[in-house]
């Protein structure tokens, strides 16, 4: 009876919501817009370069490069779903977003994050097989296995996000249509509902904890085994090279997982102690910084991609210079 009474408000369907940006920091919006534009440019150029290099070079067909292609595509989609709107809010104050567009953005943002964490796990497993079981690399990571992993990662994200989006779409929004966030983040939108948002919020918390927690556990196990194998190497140079590569990978993962999980748990446990602008910034960081760093850490630090990218850029530059002459 109480649940029926809660949902018995006369619903006023808002056709438009308004995103605040970073609550309490309007004076920093210009600098945030400049920073986001610079990072978004790196996201587009860096990930497009990696996709182009791998697509054009028939020798780059190992599982690692295929996972890099998928990761680059997800990074572009994830950043493109939020950054242009954020920049519009910070620069021109264009904060309006349609209700259906808001739900669509919410779906793609959270689904993309679920896909990304699955890809990071797949890439950690790829490195584990390459370093710890090099003689069985081709037989373990066959094209069929890779395709199955990508399909499983995508299906998991869809199965997680579809019920969540449906629950939010069924909530009545009777009062405010001002979202205290810079994009349509689930909890920020659900808080505006006249009904109790606890079911969808609890589903989001449990689902995110299970997905990220299991992925992080398997990633940690993979890199622990990798480190054990690295320390058994006789060459100090090989050890340092492997440690440098693993360290950079772990650093990018930390920049992805820590702000993301912090933003989720702070919204639940520390919402009265952590300033709202800090919560929003944490949620923004894990959507923008990893796609900016991934093409540098996973792509351009890889010798084969770096050499072919430089060759491609050189040919393009000299071709245009000769054409102009």
From TrEMBL:
InterPro entries: GPCR_Rhodpsn, GPCR_Rhodpsn_7TM, Olfact_rcpt, OR51/52/56-like
Membrane topology: Multi-pass membrane protein
Every G-protein coupled receptors family 1 profile domain range: 46-298
PROSITE patterns reported for this sequence: G_PROTEIN_RECEP_F1_1, G_PROTEIN_RECEP_F1_2
Membrane-spanning ranges: 30-53, 65-87, 107-125, 145-168, 205-231, 243-268, 280-300
UniProt GO MF annotations: G protein-coupled receptor activity; olfactory receptor activity
GO CC field: plasma membrane
Subcellular location: Cell membrane; Membrane
Keywords of this entry: Cell membrane, G-protein coupled receptor, Membrane, Olfaction, Receptor, Sensory transduction, Transducer, Transmembrane, Transmembrane helix
Similarity comment: Belongs to the G-protein coupled receptor 1 family.
Function: Putative odorant or sperm cell receptor. Odorant receptor.
Protein name: Olfactory receptor
Organism name: Erinaceus europaeus (Western European hedgehog)
